[in-house]
Records
---
Amino acid sequence: MMPEASGDEEDDLVARARSARSRAYAPYSHFYVGAAIRAAGDVFVGANVENASYGLGICAERVAAATAVASGSLAFDAVAVTSSAVDPTPPCGACRQFLYEFNPEMLVVSEGADGERRRWRLSELLVDGFGPADLRRPRIGEEEER
């Protein structure tokens, strides 16, 4: 199912992601990514930040999400991602899981360097994702709540 485009709001979200991308720190991969998350009408941006110890880098989507959370916003409804790749690039697996925590049905918009856009619901990108409800299910040795 293709999510509907949200017109001017989507254009603004993508523009903010593009602006954040210009501040990415990617001296090793040269893969520059910007993200913008809309949460309850506010927009939070992030850029990927690499590190010489490669595993310590962080993706733009998680920077934006952490900034939103630190600001007290947890109700994410959309994320826009732009990268230096020609084709639209969806969030990586780790970011999909990270974002799933906040809204499995959020709109994900990705724009490639040539301006082409793709849209998904996060639940389409992370099928049967692991979320808060999974932690509330009975476990072996526990009685179901009645």
---
Amino acid sequence: MIEARIDELGLSLPPAAAPLFQYVPVVVHQGVAYVSGQLPRKDGELLHTGKVGEDVTVEQAQEAARVCILNGLASLKQELGSLDRIERILKITGFVNSASGFTKQPVVMNAASELLVEIFGEMGRHSRSAVGVAELPSNTPVEIEMIVAVK
């Protein structure tokens, strides 16, 4: 059902990315799935690189945030077998590689939040943090982690 909704929106899930270091993409414990930070990779390449507000526009960062969400859902599908096991999106934490003086982290992260509501409806409404940081891995503009209730 959820994957059908993703298709209806004209989107698709990429293959789940393998971890590059010593961690797992998803840990499920007592009905909660913790999704490791997701980067905006498409076909193995970062969608954009650089600091938001300097090298990357807000719109490009929003696009990157949406890709992070799709990558996170791909990891969840791989771990759970089906996205229909998702009961609710509980929280997302977004890290925005911010230029000095950039303060629109919530605007960037809202694209991720909106996508989750488009896909999951009320089950997609969640708590959220949008954090500006000085650097992110591989000079990515955005990284997002998720906490999800599962059946």
---
Amino acid sequence: MRREPFYSEAGGRNEQEAIDVASFLLSLLAKGIRNTPLLRAMELVPRDVFAPRRFRDLARRDIALPLPCGQTMTTPGTVAMMLLALHVEPGQRVLEVGTGTGYVTALLAHLGAEVTTVERFNTLAESAAQHLKIVEAGKVRLEVGDGLAVRVRERFDRILLNGTCPDIPQSLLSLLGPGGRLVGALPHADGPRLVQIDRQPDGEISQSLGAPLRMTRLVPGIAATL
């Protein structure tokens, strides 16, 4: 499995880039992220490639960035918390709802997943496809569609919802294979919180709430004009 950086520039990192990356990783460590493969992925997948051009100098900071179509690029800290909970293993089939810029998609691919990612905005999907091509993201299938109403016959080991839902659609839970896990966010009195749903080998479903998250709402349907 590929372990080298997806993307590199001639001459490697300059001193400021190295400082920015080190600071970025320290901010993740400060949030309790200790998983080595995840930290390595977040070191090597360059968030600046996926960030809007005018905000690329902020890409290695733990802040959300505005995107076209009224969307938001989630903070790296939140992304790390969700991927830590998802616990992706190499070779697993992952469904991602809400491609956005493709940054999380690239992280999933770097962790060794075979990713099917669905985006409701054609504008974002086209941009994400270009970003993923630049970083040579591996086994990724990108579709424009309603990620909250996916109709496929396949089952997934992991499902990641990049946003909050009032409740988790049964249609998504039905795509979760035995031993599978879904991670997303649910509304709560004190703000959205991470939700982890596991399908046990016997088919039983268990659900647990985790840390507060700052995430935008996932909207059903396909965008008509964007």
---
Amino acid sequence: MNIGWAIFWLAMIVAAVAVEAATNQLVSIWFVLGGIAALVANLFGAPLWLQWVLFVAVSAAALVCTRPLVKRLTGFGRQDTNAGRVVGQVAVVTQQIDNTAAVGQAKVLGNVWTARSARGTVIPEGSRVIVRAIEGVKIIVEELSTEPQL
């Protein structure tokens, strides 16, 4: 056992725990496990190169094994912003949409947006449209077909 390296591994474990405690995401918990493995190897008199190999291997294995599970359990992932939620929604034109005149508005999910026609056609006020995309602060819409679908 090398006291100097035992102190180093203990400091590594404490630092990783402190970093983990200071963040609200899992960023260093894997290094805690790697540090424990290296510390145990040191206590049994393993050579320094083996301690480092164990540190890296156990940290990597812990990361690979637990990261997908942690991601799934904590619900991290991409979520649409409020703006992204309007794509695919039905809107009502509140001001005639005319791309040539650069005018038009539509109300979707309770908010009024500047609107442009995806096909370049004029869409009259009161029409129902579907939001196809967002470009900057404008929604791009298509008029809903009034013909019955077969």
